[in-house]
Amino acid sequence: GQVIEWGEGGQGQLGVGNTSDTWVPRHTCATASFPPVCTTDFDSAVAISAGGTHAMAIDDDDDAMWSWGNNATYQVGNQNGTTDALLPVQTCDIGGSCSSAEYLLDIVAIDGTLGSSFAIIDNSTYDNQLLSWGDNVSGHLGINSTTDRDDPQVVYGTGSGTALDNIYDIDGRRTHAVALAYDGSAYSWGYNTYGQIGNGTTG
Predict the structure, then answer these.
(1) Distance between CA 164 and CA 128 in Å, rounded?
(2) At a CB cut-off of 8 Å and minimum separation 6, what does 161 contact?
(3) For 99, which DSSP code?
(4) pLDDT tens, 102-148?
(5) For the CA atoms of the chain, what is the radius of gyration?
(6) Per-residue confidence at 60, pLDDT binned at 50, 70, 90?
(7) Cβ contacts of residue 35 below 8 Å, gap of 6+?
C-alpha cells in the first residue's frame, strides 16, 4: 500500500524529498525531482513504523527494509554516515554493504524509536531473529556494548552468546527495549535506573 504522512518534516522524516512541515497528508515518495516533487510514490508498503524523527517500512518485494529521515545516530542503517535521508533508502544487510547493493530482506516486523531501529528477520538462515541498529547509549540495542551501529546487528540472549530467536514482537523505547518470543518468554534490556527491565534490580 501507499505510505501517507504529515506533520513535522525537519529531518526528512516525511520522506518527500525535503525538510518542510506539512499540515495535510502527503504521499511518501519513492523518487523525487528537484525542487522536491514526487515523481513516483512509495506504494508497496506492507508495514510502517514511525520512530520520532525517522520512519521505517517493509515493502512487498522480498520483504525489504526501507528507512528515511533523521540519521544522526545511524538509525536509517544505510552506512551513509549521519546524513539524513530525505527519501526512502534501503537498509544494509547483516554484515553487508549498501555500496554493493547488499540489502536487508525477509523482514516480518519493525519498530522505530527515537534514534534506534529494530526488526525481526525470518528466512532459512535467521529464525525470527531480532536485529537492531542506531543509537546505543544505554545498551538498548542488545549487542553487549554501548556503541552506536550504522547497520543491522543480531541481538543476543542473556549470557548465552546465541542470537535471540523465535521472536514475534518488539517494542523499542528511547533507552530500553522489550521483546516477546513464541514460547511466551519476555526479554528486556537497556537502561534500568527505574527498574524498567523488570528483573528485580535497578541501575
Answers:
(1) 8
(2) none
(3) G
(4) 999 999 999 999 999 999 999 999 999 999 999 999 999 999 999 99
(5) 17
(6) very high
(7) 18
Work out the angle at residue 150's Cα, subtended by the Cα atoms of residues 195 and 30, and round it to the nearest 5 degrees.
Answer: 110
Give the separation between CA 82 and CA 24, rounded to whole angstroms: 28
Dihedral sign (CA 76, 79, 82, 85): negative
Q: How do 22-27 and 4-7 pair as beta strands?
A: antiparallel
∠ CA 153-159-164, nearest 5°, is 40
Residue with cell 545498551: 139
What whole-number distance in Å separates Cα of residue 177 and Cα of residue 194? 14
Residue 188 has pLDDT above 70, yes or no: yes
Query: What distance in Å separates the CA atoms of residue 172 and residue 182, rounded to the nearest whole number?
Result: 18
d(CA 192, CA 199): 9
Supply the mean pLDDT for the chain.
93
Amino acid at 17: G
Q: Are 118 and 132 in contact (CB under 8 A)?
A: yes
For 30, the 3-state DSSP assignment is: strand
